[in-house]
Request: fold
Amino acid sequence: MTETKTVMTNAAWRAEGARRFGTDDIMQWKFRCVSCGTESSPADFEKVNADPRRAPHECIGRHLKPVMHIDGNSKPCNWTAGGMFRLSSVVEIEGIEGKPTLAFPFADYIGGEPA
Ligand SMILES: [Zn+2]
Reply:
């Protein structure tokens, strides 16, 4: 199986987010869960009392009660970009605390390509 994930530096990722969303305020950026397609922002995470820094990495379903489980229909789900199963649309960001970090694609990415 060929891995086709995107690899970006932290600086390039931040510049791309600012370009796509028209602000460098990451709280306003949206990320799309690679499993269920739910789009959420760090501000959305804050509204449900979850750590906003997790928004690029986890489906908001992980932070809603009751906890949702992946069954192919649950939305939002409990997927995490750094979990056991990796999907090719995950973005690998380099240069954060010295190790690569896996993140969901920006919300306006369709099929791995910029909209
Ligand atoms: Zn999800």
